[in-house]
Amino acid sequence: MNKNIFTVSALLLSGLLMVSSCKKEDDTPSAPQDTAPTVNTPSDADGAFAAVNTLTHTTVAGFTTTIEIGTAVAWFGTQSTFVDGGTVTCDGETLNKQSGNSYVYVPTTTTPTGIDFATPLVWDISGNSANGVPAFTKSHSGSFPSIDDISNSGEIATNADFTLTATGAVSGSDSVIFVVSGPNGSVLKVQGPDVSSCTFTAAEMGTLGTGSNSGLLQIAPYRLTSEVFSSKKYYFVKEAVVSKFVTLK
């Protein structure tokens, strides 16, 4: 069973919405269920590291708020069991080790926009010899994949086929993840390099549920590379995610 190396929870996304002001309380979108775009780790991975640049657009009563953040996640071990790999930093920001030994960086009130990614992006790993994790530094060159926005309108019918479409071209990616989410569920599809649209069937759309501002559209192009340190193979991801909250009808 593959582990996912990038997961942004619905809680985080709804928390980001709280940053925007000038909205009445009852206009705040409820968080869709299972809203995470995910990158599956190849089976030969001894660990993985993902840097994720997210851009979220929310429109309420004709007013659009855009929030951009940088975050990161990592893990060491096997695809069934994560292990402690020591201290992990991404461009100088320390990731927090979770109870299951995954590592996550989440913006705080003092760093609301998250990591300001540099080029090249630098991962520093202190290592943990007891768990077979070497100390190493990875300079991850190259830019993030490029995506502008989502072109779909703010109201989406759930009783018909739906094509999720990027505004303009998607570039610099190995694959592109498309996600539609709602209060009752989520559907994820992975397409090839630089694909800019993906169709979801009426049957798939019918599983999402309905509600004002309760839907989330996401397009996430990513690039994957690997490198071996002390006979261990680690994967490195640069992912761009554009998101838009919508009304599902």
One letter per element, helices H and strands E, the order comes to HEEEEEEEEEEEEEEHEE
Any idea what the radius of gyration is? 18 Å
Strand content: over 45%
Q: Work out the number of β strands.
A: 16
Between the first and last Cα atoms, what is the distance in angstroms? 35 Å
Described by strand count, sense and barrel closure, the largest sheet is: 9 strands, mixed
Low-confidence stretches: 1-29
The geometry reads as elongated
Helical region count?
A: 2
The overall pLDDT, averaged over residues, is 85
Structure class: mainly beta
What does the model show?
By secondary structure, this protein is mainly β. The protein contains 2 helices and 16 strands. It has helices at 10-19, 202-205, and strands spanning 47-60, 63-76, 88-90, 93-94, 96-97, 103-105, 121-125, 136-140, 149-150, 155-156, 162-167, 175-182, 185-191, 197-200, 211-229, 232-248. Strands 1, 2, 5, 6, 10, 12, 13, 15 and 16 form a 9-stranded mixed β-sheet that branches. A hairpin with a 2-residue loop joins strand 3 (88-90) and strand 4. Residues 1-29 have low confidence and may be disordered.
